[in-house]
C-alpha cells in the first residue's frame, strides 16, 4: 500500500503547550503508597520517595501532574494530609472504598513533584466541599505569608509558596458515581463562585471546569453548554475524559477509537465557541483532556476487591503491544488538536492504569510508556496540519478507517521535524512525504515499535519484551522523505 503526506512549515495546526504531555497521580490503589512513596524501601530517598520511579518519571519529562484525584478528590479534606505525619487521620475513602492514611498530602506531593521536575495541577473538592475550602487551599498553596492559611503552610515547613498555576474545579461532577454529583445548574453555579473566590486570592491562576465524564454520558453536550453559560467568564478550560477498551478483541475497531477522540474534541470545541458567540465574548475556552488512556484489563479483578484495605492493587492494567499502538494514536490526536487542547493528562502515572509499574524491588516501563516518552520528548514545538492521503479499511462497525494515522511537529529552535505515524493494518505502507519550507533536512532516526504479538507485554521479570528500536526505514532526498511503515507499527521519524 502507498500513502502520501504534504507537510508545509506554514500549515500550522497550533502551538504545542508543554502541558499536553501531563499525567495524573490520584490517591488510588498503589499510585501514591507503594508507587511514588515507599518509606523504608532501600530504593527510596530520605523523604520516602522511590528513586527508581522518579528516574522513570524524569525520563518521560512530565511537565504537569494532576493531583490528588480523580474521584478521590470529591471526598477529600486537604488539611488531613498536612502537618506532623503521626497526627494525620486514617479515614474511610469512599470513592474507592479503601483506608486513606494521609501519610502523603499536598505538601509532600509538592516536594515529590519538584524532584520529578513537574508542576502540580491541583484539583479542589467540589463534592462534599465547596468554594470556601477551595479558596483556603489556594491561600495555603499560593499566598506568600501573613495570612492564616499561608502561615499554616510556613509552619508546616514550606516557607515559599508553591505557585500552583493550573487548578481543576472538581472532578467528573456529572457522574452518578461521583461523591456528591451535581446537575449542570448546581455545578455551574458552584464552579463559578469557587472560581471567583480562587481568582480573588490569586488572579494569576488558570481554572478548568468539569466537562462531561465522557462522550457516552447521556447529558453530554447539554452539560457543557449549561456549565459554560454559568462560568464562561471565570474559567479558562473545560475538561474531557476518555478511556478505551478492546473487550471485543477486535484490532480494527480498537485502533479506530482515536477517531472517536477526535470527534469528541471537535464537538467540545464547537460547544465552547457557540456559548462564547452567544455571550458576544472574544474569549476562547480551551480544552483540558485531563484523563485519557486505555483502561479495561483490570476491571474484573477490581470488581472482586475486598473493601477497606490500605493501598490495595487497584486498576493495575498490564498494557500490551496493541495498547501502545492506540496510545500512540491518541497522542497524535492530541497533537493534531494542539490549537485548542492545551492540557492533557495520561491517566495515570504509576501502578494505576499507568506507564510505570513497581513491585517491592523493581520499577519498570509498560508498553505505553514508549509512545508517551516519544511524544513528550519530540512532540514539542509547532504542530502542523497532517492529513495523509491513503486507503481505508472497513472496521467491523462498518466505518471507514484510514490505514495510517499521523501527526507532525516542527521545533523551530532546534530545526527538527518529527513525524509520528501508526500503521493500523497487517500490510506495510510506503509513505511518501513532501517537505515544504523546512530548509535542508536529513534523517536523524526512525524509531519503531513493531513486530510484536498484539498481546505481548512487559513484566517485572521481562521488562524489555516490547521496547522501541531504531530500525525504521526512511530515506530523504531533497524535499521528499520515503518511509516504510511496517505492519501494525508505531513510528517516530526524526528529521534534522
Ligand atoms: O483515573 C481513574 C478514574 O477515572 C478517576 O478517578 C475518575 O476521574 C475517572 O472516572
Mean pLDDT: 98
CATH superfamily of the largest domain: Glycosidases
Ligand kinds: alpha-L-arabinofuranose
Question: What is the number of E strands?
Answer: 24
**Outline:** globular
Structural class: alpha/beta
Describe the secondary-structure layout.
Blueprint: E1 2-8, E2 12-15, E3 22-24, H1 51-60, E4 64-67, E5 91-93, E6 98-100, H2 106-116, E7 119-124, H3 131-142, H4 148-155, E8 166-169, H5 184-201, E9 206-209, H6 222-231, E10 237-244, H7 251-254, H8 257-278, E11 286-294, H9 299-303, H10 321-336, E12 341-347, E13 356-358, E14 363-365, H11 369-378, E15 382-384, E16 392-394, E17 400-402, E18 404-411, E19 416-423, E20 429-436, E21 443-449, E22 473-477, E23 480-485, E24 489-495
Parallel strand pairs: 1-20, 3-4, 3-12, 4-7, 7-8, 8-9, 9-10, 10-11, 11-12
Antiparallel strand pairs: 2-15, 5-6, 13-14, 15-18, 16-17, 18-19, 19-24, 20-23, 21-24, 22-23
